[in-house]
Design brief:
Number of domains: 1
CATH architecture: Alpha-Beta Barrel
Strand order of the largest sheet: 6-5-4-3-2-1-7
Order of helices and strands: EHEHEHEHEHHEHHEHHHHH
Number of helices: 13
CATH topology: TIM Barrel
Shape: globular
């Protein structure tokens, strides 16, 4: 069990970044520097790479290794901290990614559970996460709970109870789960020792009300100013303003989801001057006509003013 000091915790906004591709779908690492600079210009200094937003399950192991190496090189000497997602269906691949992340000096690693052959109970989940975490023993490790994608919905408070003695570098949980009842138990487990950044943009205000200090989100790529204002309003007990910002985020997510979220989110990045390319199958990429239509919808709702 690793009780991180506040400066090392994943507090504030942590952007789950896109993986950039060329138009033909090949990895385009030249864009990473532009991604990092854009996020820093919006006040974001924490990134979570190679996760769901990063299409990790559509990348080869070699591509994931190259992606982590590039992000660490681009951010070297800056204030930006990099969390590397290392989870994979193959535990050996996950361990390889974890080893590399530690060698590169990542701020932390995270891993979702294998999702084809799934752990049947919490004990097997702890054993699996423990093997991955042990490959990077000096690096803070976060279990990445995202049952909507993995189909694994084991109780996270029980995971923390069993894992605290078995995973020495466990720092907490990336909680991408709208279950705010379980979230409260995680925040209070072991006297509040765990770092539990919340991962559902559309429920962020609710999580803050429960005690969240940090959030990991894909929406922060293109809408960080909205969520920064949400955090500031909440800190000032201005809940009316916080609700306005939260609903703006919800409207954006709804619009993008109607086109296929991944492809639409990547299209929005190009609208903002950071072309991260298409999405890989089985995610869809927007046609030029769809992109134009989405641009009009975003403009009509005020999106481009909201994110200035």
């Amino acid at each position: 069990m690793l009780n991180l000091p506040a400066p090392q915790r994943l507090h504030g906004l942590v952007t789950a970044t896109h993986t950039p591709f060329h138009p033909d779908g090949a990895l385009n690492l030249d864009v990473v520097e532009k991604q990092a600079a854009f996020l820093q210009s919006k006040g974001v200094n924490l990134v979570f790479i190679g996760g769901s937003t990063g299409e990790s399950h559509s990348l080869t192991l070699e591509e994931r290794l190259l992606l982590a190496k590039c992000w660490m090189a681009v951010t070297k000497g800056s204030e930006m901290r990099v969390v590397v997602h290392v989870g994979a269906n193959c535990v050996a691949d996950a361990k390889t990614l974890a080893e590399q992340a530690e060698e590169l000096g990542a701020a932390a690693i995270a891993a979702l559970t294998p999702m084809y052959f799934k752990p049947k109970n919490v004990e097997m989940l702890v054993e699996t996460m423990g093997q991955i975490a042990a490959a990077a023993p000096e690096t803070p490790f976060y279990y990445y709970d995202i049952p909507s994608m993995t189909g694994v919905n084991l109780p996270v408070p029980e995971f923390l109870r069993q894992a605290r003695e078995r995973i020495p570098n466990l720092a907490g949980v990336k909680f991408t789960n709208p279950d705010l009842m379980a979230y409260q138990y995680c925040l209070r487990a072991d006297g509040g020792a765990w770092d539990v950044p919340f991962g559902c943009d559309e429920h962020m205000l609710g999580a803050l009300a429960m005690g969240a200090k940090g959030a990991v989100g894909s929406g922060f790529n293109f809408a960080a100013p909205i969520y920064s204002r949400l955090l500031a309003a909440f800190a000032q007990n201005d809940f009316a303003a916080a609700r306005v910002e939260q609903f703006r985020g919800v409207q954006i997510i709804s619009a993008l989801a109607s086109y296929g979220y991944m492809g639409a989110a990547k299209a929005v990045m190009s609208m903002l001057g950071v072309d991260v390319g298409p999405a890989r199958l089985p995610n869809n990429t927007l046609t030029p006509a769809q992109k134009d239509k989405l641009h009009g919808e975003l403009e009509a709702m005020g999106f481009f003013e909201w994110v200035k």
